Each structure stands twice: as structure tokens, then as C-alpha cells.
Amino acid sequence: MRRVMVKELNNYINEEVKIQGWIYRIRKLKEITFMILRDRTGLVQCVIDNKTIDMGNIKLESVVSIIGEVKENNNILNPFEISTKNFEILNEVKEELPIEINKKQLEINLDTMLNNRILSLRHEKINSIFKIQNLIIQGFREFLTKEGFTEIFTPKIVAEGAEGGTEIFEVKYFENKAYLAQSPQFYKQMMVGAGYERVFEIAHVYRAEQHNTNRHLNEYISMDFEMGFIENEEDVMNMEENLLKHVLNKIEKEGKEYLEILNIVIPKIENTIPRIKFSEAIEILRKEYNKTDIDGDLDPEGEKLICKYAKEKLGCEFIFLTHYPRKKRPMYTMPCGENETHSFDLLFRGIEITTGGQRIHEYDMLIDNIKYKGLNPEKYHNYTSVFKYGMPRHGGLAIGLERITMQILKLENVREASLIPRDRTRLTP
Amino acid sequence: MRRVMVKELNNYINEEVKIQGWIYRIRKLKEITFMILRDRTGLVQCVIDNKTIDMGNIKLESVVSIIGEVKENNNILNPFEISTKNFEILNEVKEELPIEINKKQLEINLDTMLNNRILSLRHEKINSIFKIQNLIIQGFREFLTKEGFTEIFTPKIVAEGAEGGTEIFEVKYFENKAYLAQSPQFYKQMMVGAGYERVFEIAHVYRAEQHNTNRHLNEYISMDFEMGFIENEEDVMNMEENLLKHVLNKIEKEGKEYLEILNIVIPKIENTIPRIKFSEAIEILRKEYNKTDIDGDLDPEGEKLICKYAKEKLGCEFIFLTHYPRKKRPMYTMPCGENETHSFDLLFRGIEITTGGQRIHEYDMLIDNIKYKGLNPEKYHNYTSVFKYGMPRHGGLAIGLERITMQILKLENVREASLIPRDRTRLTP
């Protein structure tokens, strides 16, 4: 007998079916027992006659298989229930569950949630986070594929970091030292030059951040794209704007049931996302909020305030800041005049979710800029040599998957948007 | 003026367009020059009047922008050509190219190809490999999403390897030692138990293989799926069979132009893939090919011979070998009797492209089997504890992306199916 999923049961009224899943709730009365079964598609109430079926003291979350008739019935879950004929235990829970997961709200702290990740993920509110995350990923891919981008997978074991700094994990690679990629930056640029012109990658990247914050992970999923034959960073921002519209629209359409569970309304982008220069943002922060301690990049408070400004004065929860100072941007960033760059960040609800910009495409300028940043061009030979053989103007960006998930779903901590997060102190489960 | 892609030019006959790309070939005659331009969608011939436009000694592979009229003309590439009005150099190649990439065949050895990867990828035969690889990935996702699978991303920095053995890379993780994941095995099983039931992941995995062979990479893309509520490994094999049919069909339909460039005909799976027990395979090798040196797993010669047998005697280029010996399979594999397991490999054209099977879902049996394999259950606590709280019967498999690409496209070396491969000695580019 083929298993029927809970979501399909409405097609089987008055028929006998087999359903399988986890025991979500049990309410034992004198004559009958109400049991709620959960499978990956939903919940259904099963009525069990205590005279014919002895459930014993079976624990919640045990895995069971049930054969019964689908009968019309108005209960809180569905317009039908299962009249149980046969009850089989597939895998019994023998120990007390370490956390209680069968309530509307999961009232545990973050550490307990992550320590018992497999159980906490069974809770519909937590489960739904990753269903929405799936839609973000699918929307990203769909949109870019339609726009002529090729999906790539590039190495995460690298000889040299792309982003500079010391926040890089070391790997013992046979006799050599290697590192975990901080970003696919060099490789996605190379793939533009390799003739694919437009590429994207969704893959793990690694940052050995020393500090634990609510917005940083040491391993996260970076959604990157890079595109050739652009005029400047405006083309990249335009692409992101349309990409985000597509993604948000997809979530709204296809993620309804999960959004309801999470009680989330998807933000709208009307027309375009406001774009202001970083230097203007500093002016605004000084004038409007009396904040004067910015040096080259916004701090968390600055990000919050400029988003507040964007929402209240410009009517958008997103804001592009452009023309970041040259001294704060990596060596591959296209300069704009002496002190600025053709780069941008996208901020959303108080946090940066994208960094992007136009890249340098000319060999000599790249070598000069590496030196300007106080780095040694020799070390980047494998990267720079590509620029000798015909690299088009290009630019791109990266969106942190967990960050954008966190911001769309108004989660308090980015760890909640990672199935199995890695941070400074967390290597398990 | 908006850039038009070469593939769209047939919609612009007698109109003026802007095209951009790389100079693929130049043939200078007395009065005119024929230049072929390549963009990501194809090649087009441009005719340049030497009197009005001086191209100088511009080198092949320089990046250029051309404005001209699309005129009907029968040449080897298209039923049209560009009558050039304006010629602009966007980024000039100033050095001699290290390899010659503008011939029908790229006549260089593998090392030279990989050392000059960005240039070699511009060759249509090499470029096409990754276009087909894209279709494999898309087909895998499409099919599984339709079948109710949820896409997951699980950690690649892990405290403990899943596959056992010493072939594992060490990472310096702050004060701790960690490792690079050999597979998402533990995590995909956990996600089945977390209520998603059916999950897949396409991501990097790492094997510190000491030896360099034509079929191994130290970093590769593993296409994994895992499914709950199965009867046994047969359900997993059935799923793979339908998955492969979908993928092969997709390549055939959507990859025509690339298959033609590569001169490849896609293999057909008529009805089902033959399934024979590993022990039978050993018998066949002994009887038919006088091969008697098998111990627990096939060697490369054995794999080739059994595939030869499958093709010649069973009429299929694929073959499932089932019931592998318990002593050779990892501790999570469901035993079948005392000496066999509910596991399988899929072999295709002489190489294993999939390992899969049913997994142990009961806590006590798992602990016993870990001991049976001579391992310490304490070390696997984070994994095994999940099995106490209601794990359904489940199984799954992994397909090596580069391997299946290599086999479908009849490449000689798996490195050819990796954009930027990593092996024992190759950490760059």
C-alpha cells in the first residue's frame, strides 16, 4: 500500500489510506485517543479506538505508520480526520525528549535550540525558516539563469585569500599550507574573463572572525554574481534591484503558508531602491542624528540610523550606499577619483546584506592598486596574469544568504537562519 | 546604444547594432579585413574597410566593441555578417598569448590547459563541458524539487569525518582542530530526521587522497540526496533511475548545440538499469573474464569489465551492483544478514559514479555497528544521539558531479570536468 502525504488526503475522502510520520500530540480519553500525526507536508488528526488498538505509553515524536479511513470531520487542522484501523510503530522514542517541541511557541534559548537542532527544526516555525530560505535560493538562480548567467563552482581551498586581512582559516594541504576561501571573488572574475561573461555561485565561504556577534557566522553561504561588459557599478545595482524584486515576489507567491506561520509580511520595493553616496550618508548621520564617529565604513549604529532615514524619509526599507572610500575597499575595486570607488553596499532593515561594485579590469591599473593597498603584486600572480589576456569591464556582488534570510524574516540572530551554524565556539552538531 | 548578443542578431537584419566581445580571428586582405567576434552566445563575422578603420596590430582575444549594420550574407558561421562602422578597443591584449586557443582542436596537454585555465575555457569545446555540467546540476535539482525534496546546505567544517579513514584535511579552527567534510552524510541524515524527510545538497566535499589518478579530485562537488520512509535501498535506486532519465533527457533537449560541439551522443536508459549482487558480479568476473583478485570492492579493471559485461550482455551502459560486503561499507550502512549490506554502487562506462544505500535508523543497531567496525561510539555522539528521537527508515546516495560529467562526455580525466581543479599538487590557479 502506497503512502499518502497529509497534504493529499483531501483527495481520498471515504477511502482507506496509509500515512506515516511523527506523533505530534496525543490526547487520551476514556474510549478513544486523539493522535495528531505530522509528516513533511502537514498535520492530521487520527482517531483511535482504545478497545481495538493499544498505544501503550508511546512517546511523542515516535515514528509511526497508520492505515485508516479518511472521514469528513471539522477539526482545527483539516476538514477531515483519520479513523484508524491499523497502528504500527516504526521507530519508538525511548528517552524523554530534551526539549518540548510540540507547542505553538518554542520557548527555549538559542543555545538550547542549536544544541538540539534536529528536534528544534521539527517545530513549524523553525522548519518554515528554511522553506523560505529555499525560495530565496531558487529565486536567485531562476532570475540569473534567465538573465544569461552560468552557474559555477569554484575552489574553496585556495593558496591566497581574496579579501585580505587576517580573518582566514588555514588548512593543512599535504605538505603545503592552504586557506579556506573568504569569497569566490578571484574565481568569479576569472570566469567572466573565461568567456562566460555572466556567472553566479551559491556556496560556502569562510571568515575566521574572532568575535561572536548576532550577525556573523564563520561559515556561511554566499550568493555571488559577476557580470561582464557593464558600464559601471550602476548596472550591477540595477541587476540586484530586479533580482530582489523577483525573489521577494517569489516568496510572497510560493511561501504563503510559511509566511503565515512566521507572521511575516514581505517588504515591497516600489520602483527603485534609493542610492546615496557614502559621503552624503555621513552628512545625513551628522546632521540628522548627531553621529560623527564614522571612519570609512558605517558601524552597526550607523547602519541602523541610515536605514531609519531611508525608511522614514525615502520610503524604502532598502538603501544603496555608493562610492565607498578607496582606503576601505579591497584592491580589486575600481577607483573613482583619488579617494572614492565604484562600489556600493546594500543595507536592509539596519544591516548590510550586499557588498558589490565595479572591479578593475586593466592589468596595469590592478598592479598599481595592489601596491597602493600596500600589498605585494607577486603574491597575486595567478589572479593578475588573467588580466593580460582580454578582460572586459565587469562588476558583481555578494549577498549573504543567512543575513538576507534573517532580515526578511526578522530573526534576532543570524544563527537561526543557518541549519547547522558554525561560530567561534560552535563546531557541533 | 544597447549591446546586442550574437545569438539575437538575426532579429536585426539591416539594422545598426552594437556588439561586444573578444576577437576570435582576423584575416586581413588588401581592401578589407574579416574579423570574427566572439561573445558568450556565439561567433559573428565582421567586415572592416581598411581605408576607414585602422585596426593596427591588435592581438587576438582583445576585447572590442563594434557598431555596424547586420547584413544578409552566407558565411560559414551565420546567414549574416556585420558591416562595421565603428570599432573600439575596450581592453587590448598586449602580450603574446601563452596558448593558441582559436583552432578547432585545442592541442595542448592537460597541465598546460589547467595552468592557462582562463584562456583554455574560452575554447568552445572546453566551454561546452561546463554548459552541459550546468544542465546536469539543473536537472538534478529540478527533478528532486518536483519529488518533494528540500535543498540544504550543511557545514563543511566538521569535528569528525563521516566516512572514516585517514583521507581527511585538517583545519586550524581557532584553538581547535577541525576537519573538512568528506561528505554531508551525517547532516543529510539528520535533516531527514529533522522533519524534511527528503533533502538534497550540491556542494563541495574534500578527500585527502594521497595519490593522483585520472578519476580523483581532492575537492569535488557532491550531489547528494537522502530520503525517509523508504522500504529499503530499492526505493533509492528507483529514485536514481528516474533522476538519471530526467537529467539525460534534459541534456539531450537543452544541450544540443554543446553536444554537437563535443560530438557526444547521450546514452539511453531503456526501462530499468540492471541490478546484480556484488557477489554475482564477482562470479561473472571469474567465469567470464578469469579475474579472481577481488576483495570486497572492485578495482578499476573489475569496474571496466563488469561494465563491458553490462553493455554486451545486458544491453545497458549503466549497472547497479548491490549488497556490498559489510566489512567494506561505512558504519552507517544498513546490514543485510551477517556479511552483506543494503547498499549499492552505480557504475557507468567503467567507473563508479554513485555510492548509496539504506542507512541504519535504530539507535541500538547503530551503536552496535559502530563497534563492529572497530570504532568508538563516544566519538560519534553528536550524530548518534539524533537516532534516539524518532528517525524513520531512510537511505540515499551521492553522485560525483565531475565524474558523471566526465563519463557522459567521455573525457579522459576528471580534471577536465572541474573549472578549477584541486589535486595532490595543484593549488593554483
From TrEMBL, chains A, B:
Example of a GO MF term: aspartate-tRNA(Asn) ligase activity
Localization in the cell: Cytoplasm
Domain Aminoacyl-transfer RNA synthetases class-II family profile: 130-429
Function: Catalyzes the attachment of L-aspartate to tRNA(Asp) in a two-step reaction: L-aspartate is first activated by ATP to form Asp-AMP and then transferred to the acceptor end of tRNA(Asp).
Entry annotated with the keyword Ligase: yes
Keyword presence, Cytoplasm: yes
UniProt KW keywords: Aminoacyl-tRNA synthetase, ATP-binding, Cytoplasm, Ligase, Nucleotide-binding, Protein biosynthesis
PROSITE patterns to which the protein is assigned, alphabetical: AA_TRNA_LIGASE_II
Protein name per Swiss-Prot or TrEMBL: Aspartate--tRNA ligase
Spans through the membrane: none
Enzyme Commission number, as recorded: 6.1.1.12
Oligomer and partners: Homodimer.
Family: Belongs to the class-II aminoacyl-tRNA synthetase family. Type 2 subfamily.
Residue numbers binding L-aspartate: 163, 207, 355, 359
Organism: Clostridium mobile
Ranges for region Aspartate: 185-188
Record gene name: aspS
Binding site for ATP: 207-209, 215-217, 352, 400-403
Catalytic activity reported: tRNA(Asp) + L-aspartate + ATP = L-aspartyl-tRNA(Asp) + AMP + diphosphate
